[in-house]
Design goal:
Low-confidence stretches: none
Distance between the termini: 46 Å
CATH class of the largest domain: Alpha Beta
Largest sheet: 3 strands, parallel
Number of domains: 2
Order of helices and strands: EHEHEHEHHHEHE
Mean pLDDT: 89
């Protein structure tokens, strides 16, 4: 399938590490150096293919669910399911205090890209920086906020699209 890609393709995997044959991808990249690759999942986590990571434009440590909103919502789903199963009467459950009620305020942004850059800097999670302590990094990860955790007071462009992404507009 890689051979069907254009030599200027963008290749992204954020689903499951085993979906991509990393040896085949590395071989493909050696033949097609202009292909841009972004990986958030790895075939043999936590033992990473560092050679492949070096070839990536973006290489992150599989932290898609490591946001405050993701952790609270996952916990809520578990508590609600256990409560329903055992008839505990806890649903709908929310933590007290609920950390999701307080939004981080962003004064202004020019456009969507500027706004996203103010909420999350992906380069801080670059695997090439943290590869030696991959598992420790994930275990001690400081939760970031999803877009729904932010209130934007002023946006110069794309206000409707910003709202569709989950940002609160104020």
């Amino acid at each position: 399938n890689l051979a069907l890609c254009k030599p200027t393709a963008y290749f992204l995997n954020s689903s499951r590490g085993g979906v991509v044959d990393e040896v085949a991808l590395l071989s493909y990249l050696e033949q097609n150096p202009n292909v841009a690759v972004a990986l958030d999942v790895w075939e043999n986590e936590p033992d990473l293919n560092l050679e492949l990571a070096k070839r990536c434009l973006v290489a992150t440590p599989h932290i898609a669910g490591y946001s405050l909103e993701g952790k609270v919502m996952a916990t809520k789903m578990v508590v609600d399911a256990v409560s329903r199963y055992f008839n505990l009467g806890l649903t709908p459950w929310w933590p007290t205090p609920n950390p999701l009620t307080e939004k981080q305020v962003i004064g202004s942004a020019e456009n969507i890209l500027d706004l996203i850059g103010k909420t999350y800097r992906i380069e801080r999670d670059d695997i090439r920086i943290i590869a030696k302590d991959f598992e420790d990094y994930r275990n001690t990860y400081n939760y970031r906020r999803d877009f729904t955790g932010f209130k934007v007071l002023k946006i110069e462009e794309d206000a409707e699209k910003v709202g569709m992404l989950g940002f609160e507009l104020g």
